[in-house]
Write a structure and sequence with these properties.
By secondary structure, the protein is of the alpha/beta class. It has helices at about 10-25, 50-60, 85-95, 105-115, 130-140, 160-170, 185-200, 230-240, 245-250, 270-275, 280-300, and strands spanning about 40-45, 65-70, 95-100, 120, 150-155, 175, 200-205, 215-220, 255-260. The protein has eleven helices and nine strands. Helix 4 links the parallel strand 3 and strand 4 (about 120). Helix 1 packs across helix 5. The two termini are about 10 Å apart.
Length: about 300
């Protein structure tokens, strides 16, 4: 494991080891207080962030490392100077690069031209750190993740892709429910179906929300991804039948609600669900730090 660009690059064993290590770090943080002693991590962010920036910055500090944040005020990646030069120069000083970018190709260039580990903190195709936090959260509720039935309802996006790869590696059952024209990337679907078949899991895709039943958890995300220019009124009209509300939770028997945040109450999900007793959203948010720390320790410890 040289980088974390996508969950699909992990083996099942590597994924399980990261989740196990994340639990250990969360339970016994003092044992990892100097895990990154003397290490420096540069964070390159093209997009705004709350959870990703704070969880990485504080998490690196808790491991005894040093974090340096660079946003677009230092020049857009690939515009002020080539991404390859960003990667090569930062590699002269830092021990790792954490990047939150618009295009996944930027993440790949950083890994190709740098000489230090690169962690994808979000791109247009994948959000692996979120996916790891999500499965860490589920593992705290279910002893055997291969038995979990997870439904994702809404827009098929980078978060969906990471959840799909993770569920497939773990042998879980994942159902993705999207309006027509908003399904996950076709190539990702093909790859996930192959991985799921190898691990005893399954991937189900449908536009008919009435078809889903017997789920352990329902996951949703914002209907418009950051940077999209779609009309909110048009999106609301198209996605209204896919709102996660208590009636849907009860219908499918889902005990838990999940969301990567930010959440827009009464849009993709009702406040009753977002703030309800079965909501795992703050546990997911906290687990971003623990899952990312496990990745950092794996790569640098």
């Amino acid at each position: 494991m040289n980088h974390l660009l996508s969950i699909k690059a992990l083996s099942k064993q590597q994924l399980l080891e990261i989740l196990s290590l994340a639990k250990e770090i969360k339970t016994n943080p003092a044992q990892y207080r100097k895990a990154l002693d003397g290490k420096s991590v540069v964070m390159l962010f093209e997009k705004p962030s709350l959870r990703t920036r704070v969880s990485f910055d504080i998490g690196i500090n808790k491991l005894g490392g040093h974090c340096l944040y660079l946003d677009q005020q230092n020049g857009a990646l690939g515009k002020r100077e080539p991404v390859s030069d960003f990667a090569a120069n930062i590699s002269c000083w830092a021990d790792a690069i954490v990047a939150r970018t618009f295009a996944h190709s930027t993440i790949e260039q950083l890994a190709e031209h740098g000489t230090v580990p690169v962690i994808n903190a979000l791109s247009d195709m994948y959000h692996p750190c979120q996916g790891l936090a999500d499965f860490l959260t589920l593992s705290e509720q279910f002893d055997d993740l291969s038995k979990v039935k997870l439904a994702y309802v809404g827009d098929g996006n980078n978060v969906t892709h990471s959840l799909m790869y993770g569920a497939a590696l773990l042998g879980a059952t994942m159902t993705v429910v999207c309006p027509q024209g908003h399904f996950p990337d076709g190539q990702v679907v093909v790859e996930v179906q192959a991985i799921a078949a190898e691990n005893g899991g399954s991937l189900i895709l449908t536009s008919d929300i009435e078809q889903i039943s017997g789920q352990d958890a329902i996951y949703t995300d914002t209907w418009i991804s950051m940077g999209d220019n779609a009309s909110l009124d048009e999106i609301k009209a198209k996605f209204a039948p896919y709102q996660v509300n208590q009636a849907l939770m009860d219908k499918v028997g889902a005990k838990f609600f999940m969301h990567c945040l930010p959440a827009y109450r009464e849009v993709e999900a009702t406040a009753e669900v977002v703030d309800g007793t079965g909501s795992l959203i703050l546990q997911q948010a906290e687990n971003r730090m623990h899952a990312q720390n496990a990745v950092l320790v794996k790569l640098l410890g």
